[in-house]
Write a sequence for this structure.
């Protein structure tokens, strides 16, 4: 089986497949930047600016509010 480890970007807790992974309401709306890397659970450097935010993991690079806008 190929289970990829995932971490909740807002709490840093490991996400268990099949379990409810609560996301804060503001975060679900994209208003709140993630604070932890989804791939490794490390705390990221987060910067909020007028157009959005960016968050950087020392291992996995940068995420920003535009990257996550998949709608
Ligand atoms: Zn990472």
């Amino acid at each position: 089986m190929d289970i990829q480890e995932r971490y909740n970007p807002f709490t840093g807790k490991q996400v268990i497949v099949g379990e409810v992974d609560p996301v804060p309401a503001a975060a679900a709306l994209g208003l709140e930047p993630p604070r932890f890397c989804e791939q490794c659970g490390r705390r990221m450097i987060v910067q909020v600016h007028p157009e959005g935010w960016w968050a950087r993991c020392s291992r996995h690079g940068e995420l920003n509010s535009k990257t996550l806008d998949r709608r």
The helical segments are 25-28.
